[in-house]
Amino acid sequence: MSKSVAGPEIERLIQLLAKVPGLGPRSARRAALHLIKKKEQLLGPLADALAAARDSVTVCSTCGNVDTRDPCTVCTDQRRDRGVIIVVEDVADLWALERASAMNCLYHVLGGTLSPLDGIGPDDLNIKPLVERISSGEGAKEVIIAVNATVEGQTTAHYITDRLDGLDVTITRLAHGVPVGGELDYLDEGTLTAALRSRTSL
Amino acid sequence: MSKSVAGPEIERLIQLLAKVPGLGPRSARRAALHLIKKKEQLLGPLADALAAARDSVTVCSTCGNVDTRDPCTVCTDQRRDRGVIIVVEDVADLWALERASAMNCLYHVLGGTLSPLDGIGPDDLNIKPLVERISSGEGAKEVIIAVNATVEGQTTAHYITDRLDGLDVTITRLAHGVPVGGELDYLDEGTLTAALRSRTSL
């Protein structure tokens, strides 16, 4: 705001809210007003929840997931198949795969992809701990590389495959194909080619 | 999330973030992850800012603005023209008018509009204090009614005009017309008619 119409506490709240992904300067003001109006129901609880997260959230030293304990809820869940590890770029991907509920297994979060242009090399990612995790004989039989289907993702997938070469583990990757509910008309040629090549019998 | 992949503190944070206007369940997860990753730069400061707002924000007993002091920054600003009071529906409108920096005067926040269907009558709005503010002879010479150009807003404007009738104050309203930068092609007939009627000489 050009002129200050509210106290510095409110101005600071708006500035910080504007940095939250999904909110901009305009919606941050709207959010701040809404929070102030719902002081008891929302502003207070959100302040407490953020403080609790700040004080308790940590990164799992085994898989790289974020949680309030280390090892994390996923790594310590004994009902999971410990023979399968899904390698993902980001915690958000882990959450997305968990929402799909397709597998009940372990994960490994890389924390990004190899990107020489941005100066991100193998040592900047959580790759060495993955190799150690597999070679230590913890029981992993399959590693599913579930990185994004981008150039950087595929480069990273190849690098990890090389690093795991020789270890007693099966390496797989996600299938390419038509998204469920997707319309062929809107898909790119690469996806259509992959979907045709990997066609299955009805 | 169907299965819990993170501790209850993170789940609760996501649930609360999803209630912030501008964020939904999906973007709340993204926001929570971003906050967790930027623990020192964003999560911590935001927790503190929210706690500070919770502890210090109050409603101005004079004009209905929200601020960290009562009377608020606007009401106590001696450089403002105390002869003009702009009546708005909501604090957001006050902030919007302040951003425009067109006037340097006082405000009065109604806290809504008359809406018999929703059971909102004159006593539910900040109207009586406005009448008292004008009749007490604080020095107000003009009341600009800047409510939204909706049916409820206009009904409220008429009601306030009636209530202020007989007091020594000029009552004005915002001009109707073509928004600056607006294209005629996209405007409704009511706006075009109003803009034609209130045409000014070049």
Summed up:
Chain A has 202 residues and is α/β, with parallel strands linked by helices. Chain A has a domain at 81-173: Dna Topoisomerase Vi A Subunit, Chain: A, domain 2, CATH 3.40.1360. In chain A, 42% of the residues lie in helices and 12% in strands.
Topology:
The structure is a homodimer of 202-residue chains.
Chain A: H1 8-17, H2 25-37, H3 39-56, E1 58-59, E2 66-67, H4 73-76, E3 81-88, H5 91-100, E4 105-109, H6 128-135, E5 142-145, H7 151-163, E6 170-173, H8 189-197
Parallel strand pairs in A: 3-4, 3-5, 5-6
Antiparallel strand pairs in A: 1-2
Helix pairs in contact in A: 1-2
Oligomer: homodimer
Number of strands of chain A: 6
State the secondary-structure class of chain A: alpha/beta
Q: Write down the CATH class of the domain at 81-173 in chain A.
A: Alpha Beta
Give the terminus-to-terminus CA distance of chain A.
Answer: 61 Å
Mean pLDDT metric of chain A: 90
What would the CATH topology of the domain at 81-173 in chain A be?
A: Dna Topoisomerase Vi A Subunit, Chain: A, domain 2
One letter per element, helices H and strands E, the order of chain A comes to HHHEEHEHEHEHEH
Sum up the overall morphology of chain A in one term: globular
As a whole number of angstroms, the C-alpha radius of gyration of chain A is 22 Å
- Unreliable parts of chain A: none
The order of strands across the largest sheet of chain A is: 4-3-5-6
Strand proportion of chain A: 5-15%
Largest interface chains and counts? A-B, 60 and 60 residues
Zinc finger (C4-type) (chains A, B): 60-75
Keywords (chains A, B): DNA damage, DNA recombination, DNA repair, Metal-binding, Zinc, Zinc-finger
Pfam families (chains A, B): RecR_C, RecR_HhH, RecR_ZnF, Toprim_4
GO molecular function (chains A, B): DNA binding; zinc ion binding
